[in-house]
């Protein structure tokens, strides 16, 4: 009988990196560019060395699916210590098993549809205030204002701040705290990481004060939802858990800024898409409050918001995991003990999955394949309750869609010539030139 030979597994491909510092500087300088370059040269699974660890990178829908398999990967003790230190080691991205499932079930209560409809009122109020200001301005940079607006929304939703005014100290502190994730973790008063920890402590104090205020006088916002959330077997979030996760929710608003900016950019650059979307908004949602149910009547809006997040990725990678059991992908051995990340940007731009991946084409989703849907990972992959997929995905959808509806109902915008490419050395990308815009009321 002829013997069948099992081909030996290949080792993870990688490129030379200097000892100690490894790929850290190249990666931190331009995470998206670094990963795109490695994907082009090494394929869908490869090794890099960042933050003093060997990390397996997974690109494309099939590799991403393997990365989500909890038989082989765990999030426990996987993230670089400085990232866990900024967010809090007990925050949901770092939990596993039963502790993770319990926390995630409770957190998802905060983003259920009835709660989102309540948040939409706050979103509309703040966005309307900003739109009026923009229409009264000459050409201005949209990104700094979208940043202030997003932080204003986060402040109102999560700590009950006044929706009719901005608190610049809070907005700046969150930028500083979350900026610390993509820096070398040297904790000195003058380093970005040292400043990030200081900003984190200031914010933790503000969140505790907000919780006390909510306990003293009931409110109707996301912190109130967090306080009243109950799991199926009646458990609730402790005060400490509410504070930990509220800090993370705030930080999670930073990618919303990129999401809003790239959506506005894609629309302003593609007149035909903008006109078609405006027609849909005028037909189906010309006036009255935005609700989740009403938004479901706008399929083109859904495709546009989905495609802007695919064509212009905001985040390069997921949180870190660790290989807990050896596995393989397409003949490449993935050894136990290595760190691992799902590569979001390169998967959204995978040329084996999407034709003309850089092109913004909302109609590609009309007859998208199963493979294309599974490669849509701007918020991570898997299920919300079973995997570490973004808890705020529906809130982010609501934010992008409400923004598009309010802007298209009453305003038009054009861009002077500028650099529309994405920022490089930041964890969350936005248009590099700040998105200079001229906006007018129709
Ligand atoms: C466009 C905006 C957003 C993008 C692109 C985004 C993207 C992501 C990504 C990629 C992850 C990590 C997935 C993983 O590690 O596998 C994540 C996790 C998470 N996001 Fe978002 N996010 C956004 C907005 C939000 C908002 C508004 C909130 C809440 C206010 C939020 C809350 C969370 C939470 C709690 C997690 C951790 C989930 C877990 O570990 O189970 N995100 N998000």
Instruction: Assign the CATH architecture.
Output: Orthogonal Bundle
Number of helices: 18
Provide the spatial order of strands within the biggest beta sheet.
Answer: 1-2-8-5-3
- Total discrete domains: 1
Largest sheet: 5 strands, mixed
* Unreliable sequence segments: none
Quote the distance from N terminus to C terminus.
80 Å
| CATH superfamily membership | Cytochrome P450
| Topology pattern, helix = H, strand = E | HHEEHEHHHEHHHHHHHHHEEEEHHHEE
Coarse shape = globular
Mean model confidence by pLDDT: 94
Helix content: 40-55%
- How much strand? 5-15%
Number of strands: 10
- Which structural class matches the secondary elements? alpha+beta
List of distinct ligands in this structure: protoporphyrin IX containing FE
Rg: 22 Å
CATH class: Mainly Alpha
- Tell me the CATH topology: Cytochrome p450
Describe this structure in a few short sentences.
This protein is of the alpha+beta class. The chain is built from 18 helices and 10 strands. Protoporphyrin IX containing FE binds next to helix 11, helix 12 and helix 18.
Describe the structure.
The protein is of the alpha+beta class. It has one domain: Orthogonal Bundle (Cytochrome p450), CATH 1.10.630. The protein contains 18 helices and 10 strands. The strands form 3 sheets. A 5-stranded mixed beta sheet has the order 1-2-8-5-3. A 3-stranded antiparallel beta sheet has the order 4-10-9. Strands 6-7 form a two-stranded antiparallel ribbon. Strand 1 and strand 2 form a beta hairpin. The longest helix has 25 residues. It binds protoporphyrin IX containing FE (HEM). Protoporphyrin IX containing FE binds next to helix 11, helix 12 and helix 18. The site of protoporphyrin IX containing FE has 24 residues, from helix 11, helix 12 and helix 18.
